[in-house]
Every structure is written in structure tokens, then in C-alpha cells.
Amino acid sequence: MNRDNMPKDSQQDQPVVFVVDDDRSVRDALEDLLASVGLGSMLFASSQEFLQAERPDAPACLVLDVRMPGLSGLDFQDELARQGLHIPIVFITAHGDIPMSVRAMKGGAIEFLTKPFRDQDLLDAIQQGIARDRIRRQEEAVRQDLRRRYASLNQGERAVMDLVIKGLLNKQIAGMLDVSEITVKVRRGRVMRKIGAQSLADLVRFAERIHEADRGWRD
């Protein structure tokens, strides 16, 4: 089941396995293997071909050959990281060694398989990669929602929010910001509505999650 032949609606829901290998016979064999377990695939003869292709927005895993003309699989792993493309990678190779495998795993690879390997070992690694990517995508969706809600606050509302979560009373906040207590109450109400908080505890939790998300974006 090649990904290109799948209906567009189903493409958004179904995971996809990217295969980058300069050997056509390997690509074809992997396509057949993946199809046998109901996994869609997209095949590429080079890393450049992969980078230039339009890829679906779906949970994914990348099966990557280590030794290829031009950019090697390990160098391509580094390039993906530089571009912020966090796709779980399963390496396959006929000529692997310990330094290669160590570098791949330190770079975050799911698995480093040396031929000949069992089909089931590859499929298990791919499923692990897809599961990891699902979690990453879910976490990213949460972070984007947090960022969207926080971005909806104007400067005055953010100032009030920062002081509210520190436990200050409206009267104290009004004095610190040099505004009326009524203005603080109005801004505080807007903050609660925009953030979707029902209580001060909700607002504090939101602020903590925003802080954690900010650290994730910086990392």
C-alpha cells in the first residue's frame, strides 16, 4: 500500500513510513513488507529527494540506509536535527560497525539494524518509532495551543496574570501597576476567559505549563 495511492482523508489519519535507500531492490522489498502489515510508505533514492518531497502531516518513522552516495545516513540524521525535523529513525545497513551504531543511537535513533536482520525486528522498531512520533505530535499540539492562548493576552492582561499567579490581591496589583482596582478585575476576568481557567489553581497550572513549553521550544 504505497502512500501515494491512499485517499487524502485517510492519509491524515494513517501513519507513514519513509524509506531512504539508494538501492531500488531494497526500497521495493521494504515497500512490500510494510504493505503486508498495512503500513503506507513513501520511497526515496536519496536524502535530497526526501527533503524536496512534499510529505504528509501524519505520524511517521524513517527507515534510513547508513551508506549512501553523497550525504550518508548518519550525516543526514544530523541534518534533520539541524532543520528541526524530529522524525524517529531506524537505521539499516549491510556494513555497520560499533562506532556507527553508537553515533546513531546518541543521535536519537530508534534502532540500528545490520543485515541480515529479521523482518519482525524491523517492523517492531518501526512501530516503536511511529508510537514515539504520535506522542511527540500530541505534545506539540498541546504546546501550540498553550502558545496560542497566551498570545491572545495583551500586555496589560499578561502583567495582571503574572501578579495574580504570585498570589497578590487585586488591590495590591492595582497599586503595583498604577491602575484602578476595577481595571485589574476586568483584566483578570479577560485573562481567565482567554486562558480557559475556572479558578486560580487552573491559572497557576496554565502558567506552569507555559513555562515548561517555553523550555521545550528553546531546547
Task: Give the count of helical stretches.
Answer: 10
Shape: elongated
Here the CATH topology of the largest domain equals Rossmann fold
What value does the Rg take, in angstroms? Answer: 24 Å
- The CATH homologous superfamily name of the largest domain equals Response regulator
Q: Ranges with pLDDT <50 over ≥5 residues?
A: 3-10
SS-derived structural category: alpha/beta
Topology as a string of helices (H) and strands (E) = HEHEHEHEHEHHHHH
- The helix content, as a percent range, equals 55-70%
Q: What characterizes the major β-sheet? A: 5 strands, parallel
Mean pLDDT, as a whole number? Answer: 90
Q: What is the total tally of β strands?
A: 5
Number of domains: 2
Which short descriptors sum up this protein?
five-stranded parallel beta sheet; alpha/beta; 219 residues; Arc Repressor Mutant, subunit A; Rossmann fold; 10 helices; disordered N terminus
